[in-house]
Design brief:
- With 401 residues, this protein is an alpha/beta fold.
- It has 3 domains: 67 residues, Roll (Archaeosine Trna-guanine Transglycosylase, Chain: A, domain 4); 108 residues, Transcription Regulator spoIIAA; 193 residues, Rossmann fold, CATH 3.40.50.
- 28% of the residues lie in helices and 30% in strands.
- It contains 12 helices and 20 strands.
- The strands form 4 sheets. It has a 7-stranded mixed β-sheet, with helices on both faces.
- A hairpin with an 8-residue loop joins strand 7 and strand 8.
- The longest helix has 17 residues.
- It is globular.
- The structure holds S-adenosyl-L-homocysteine.
């Protein structure tokens, strides 16, 4: 697995992204494959003239034919290589490791940590691993061993049940791969708040860790104290829980998932918060917001954190219409001077386009909307500058008159 089994010659004029250290080589950029590389094998990427540029792992079944690992063509891709990359990713989260108010965070963010296709999240004493590519899938045993040796978790859960694996012709896989099962319930801490997580059945790897910093930003007491809040797309109630601890008035946590709302309610108990007037509402956010509009229900703050609307380029138009409708409805529910916290996790929708969509919603709703804070994904989800595709989450906190 550590041997280079083929050389891939790029088409003339297609080497620039490789020189600029973009980690992907698409099938269309490849001229010739010299050798017979198997799925996950190491290959050398070279110019049309045969000058070596980088070392990659290969997948003949994916449009992304090779994912680049090293631009030093003399570097061995062996156990040491992977160990060093993991060590570097872990070192980049030292501030979180030292923060005893937060025990759940992302340790390895795939391409952006120079480990293409590998995601590892830490939940207290447990790790959750996602292998998104065939190149990582064939290295499962080695990765698990390294994680176990280097990080001494109590258990490692695999959550390779993600649609992206279909593009690599990989099956959906989940389960315990090392050590012991987490206790049920497993409770972790985020900025001093307790969260119950279900590592095997929860969304993503259990929590939306990418929102951790935004939860703190938009629920500052100055924004939420005594305010009536609609937390739409609440999942396990993250934003609502922070708001509750910062003195919010009544909170409606709205989500289509009943199990998620049950955990949201349990989270209040884990934090010893007793709020009998809060609502946990299972339903479709579009329908509920329309119902609130028709019945004249108003809020001081509306939080919109919907799932990804655009999965590919062809979805962009439909997705922007969805975001516009949703935000238009939310604007109609806000009292003058109220706050809209609106997010999009569709990587295909740029921050610029997202702002234009909210602008369109503001015009149609005839409201003055001031942008008071722009947001992105938490710092444990870094974006490698040579791989801007890694930036997907954007948010705007707006005051609405
Ligand atoms: N804000 C959450 C994360 C939200 S993820 C947090 O901070 O943890 C998106 C959520 O939207 C998921 O929980 C999903 O169950 C929910 N969802 C998806 N479609 C929905 C719909 N049409 N109406 C309401 N909720 C929906």
């Amino acid at each position: 697995m550590n041997e280079i089994t083929a050389t891939i010659l790029l088409k003339r004029g297609r080497e620039k992204p490789v020189r600029n250290r973009h980690p992907w080589v698409f099938s269309g950029a490849i001229d010739t494959v010299n050798g017979d590389p198997k799925t996950g094998d190491l290959v050398q990427i070279a110019t049309a003239e045969g000058k070596p540029l980088a070392t990659a792992y290969y997948n003949p079944h994916s449009q992304i034919r090779a994912r680049l690992l090293s631009w030093d063509t003399d570097e061995e891709i062996d156990g040491r290589f992977w160990q060093n990359k993991i060590q570097r990713a872990v070192a980049g989260r030292e501030w979180l490791a030292n923060d005893d108010t937060t025990t759940a965070y992302r340790l390895i963010n795939a391409e952006s940590d120079s480990l293409p296709g590998l995601i590892v999240d830490k939940y207290g004493d447990y790790l959750v691993m996602q292998l998104l590519t065939a190149g990582m899938d064939v290295r499962r045993d080695m990765i698990v061993e390294l994680l176990a040796d280097m990080l001494s978790p109590k258990g490692i859960i695999e959550r390779s049940d993600v649609p992206a694996r279909q593009k690599e012709q990989l099956p959906q896989v989940k389960g315990l791969v090392w050590g012991q099962e987490p206790p049920s319930p497993l409770v972790v801490m985020e900025n001093g708040r307790f969260f119950q997580v279900d590592l095997l059945h929860g969304h993503k790897t259990g929590l939306y860790l990418d929102q951790r910093e935004n939860r703190a930003v938009i629920t500052q007491p100055a924004f939420v104290a005594d305010k009536e809040i609609l937390n739409a797309f609440a999942y396990t109630g993250g934003f609502g829980l922070y708001a509750a601890t910062n003195g919010a008035g009544n909170i409606v946590n709205l989500d289509s998932s009943i199990p998620a709302l049950e955990i949201a309610e349990a989270n209040m108990a884990h934090n010893k918060i007793d709020r009998p007037d809060d609502e946990y509402l299972a339903g479709d956010a579009f329908e509920v917001l329309r119902y609130y509009r028709d019945t004249g229900r108003q809020f001081d703050m509306v939080i919109l954190d919907p799932p990804k609307f655009a999965h590919s380029r062809k979805d962009i138009d439909r997705a922007t219409r969805g975001y516009k409708d949703l935000n238009w409805l939310a604007l109609r529910l806000l009292r003058p001077g109220g706050l809209l916290a609106t997010f999009s996790c569709s990587g295909r929708i740029s921050p610029d386009l997202f702002q234009k969509v909210i602008f369109g919603a503001a015009i149609d709703a005839r409201r003055d909307v001031q942008l008071i804070h722009t947001m992105g994904q938490a710092a444990d989800h870094p974006v490698l500058l040579t791989f801007p595709e890694a930036a997907y989450l954007k948010g705007m906190l707006c005051r609405v008159w």
